[in-house]
Amino acid sequence: MSIAIKPLQGLRVLEMGQLIAGPFAGQMLAYFGAEVVKIEPPRKGDPLRNWRVLDKQGTSYWWASIARNKKSLTLDLNHEQGQLLARQLLDKADVLIENFRPGKMESWGLGPDEVKTSNPSLVYTRVSGYGQNGPYAQRPGFASVCEAEAGMRYVNGFPGEAPVRANLSLGDTFAGMHAVIGTLLALMAKAHTNGMGQSVDVSIVESVFNMMEGVQPEYDGAKVVREPSGTTVTGIVPTNTYRCRNEVFIVIGGNGDTIFKRLMIAIGKPDLATDKRMADNAGRVACEAEIDRVLAEWASQHDAEAALAILRAADVPAGPINSIREISQDPHFMHREMFESVTVGGQTRSIPALHPKLQNTPGSTAWAGPELGQHTADVLQTWLGLSPDDIASCKRLGVI
User: Which domains does the chain possess?
Assistant: First the structure.
């Protein structure tokens, strides 16, 4: 049963920041019903509007997705009147998400200490490269650098070669997800603290480090530094990428004890299925080269589709390495409704639906990323009660 209300309906959120980390968090909150007002600089707006592949109007295709369900309000925060309006908006908000360098909000008179005097219930979520304090706090927080400093780049790639990155800004999206989690936790905490808000301090470098699994405990306990391991995962065998006869790569994850037996039987190696050396993961790690050689030889004798059919029939985890071309046509993604349609410039576009799925109060996309300043007058009237003359005056001053 689906209920019309969304879980965050009625929540007022101000998004102050740009590019990826903060806006990713705002996107998630807006998808699940929050009223997210994105404050952008007049004239140019968020630089993400013009990043990567652009449509015929010169706007990023990505914008339709990451700014979905948001309202765009232009405001010059370097102008005294712009700072005053921002402060008034903060007094009406339940949540702020900002991802400026530490100290920037304070320089505008909009820091948490100033705002809590008039809006003590505000959840003040801050996203930065290195956090609000510490030796590195004032460094520019780029995901690429933070991924490296938090150790994720070190374990990616092949031994002896330059570390590689995923062709994505994972550090930013990791931070955005942690910002969502922190915001929701702070909202929950208000029920136990007489409605008091608090600051949520999220850093990219710590968000990445939070995803590093057992790397630090292994180093602390055994002084083992996890090294890059190419297409494998250290200490888990077999899990690797194999080239098939038709030059297509597939991934096989046969690292469970019973799964490994099924895998070896499926590829015609029953002797290895019962080999005592390979009965558990520790033994398979010791035999990794032998196992990988056998699997590589088998894969090279089959086209990818045929190989995957054999493995799936044996209930062995395996799959193709898809590009977005394959994903966009994948029947499972379609069945799971992982694509949504929006209208941009009179044309229909497909954007990804957001995860997770809620059974009774699901999120959805109501509109694509807005035009710059599209909702300025509406928000100033609705939130602050400004008259048309007030708004016209702000426009003449260049504040909006």
Answer: 12-211+336-397 (3.40.50.10540), 239-243+249-320 (3.30.1540.10)
DSSP count for the chain of H helices, then E strands: 18, 11
Whether residue 172 lies in the annotated active site:
yes
- Strands (E) in 267-398, as ranges, are 318-320, 339-344, 347-352
pLDDT, tens digit (0-9, with 9 covering 90-100), for 17-68: 899 999 999 999 999 999 999 999 999 999 999 999 999 999 999 999 999 9
Q: Find tokens 């990323």 and name the residue.
A: 369
**DSSP state letter for 374:** T
**CA angle, residues 299, 266, 317, in degrees to nearest 5:** 75
Q: Of 125, 151, 163, 133, which is closest to residue 205 (Cα–Cα)? A: 151
Residue 275 in 3-state DSSP?
coil
Residue tagged active-site, from 94, 172, 201, 275: 172
Are 264 and 257 contacting, i.e. CB atoms less than 8 angstroms apart?
Answer: no
Crossing angle of helices 376-384/80-92, nearest 10°?
Answer: 60
Distance in angstroms (rounded) separating the CA atoms of residues 200 and 180: 10
For residue 141, what are its two tokens? 């927080």
Q: Which letter does DSSP use for residue 143 in this model?
A: H
Predicted TM-score of the model (pTM): 0.94
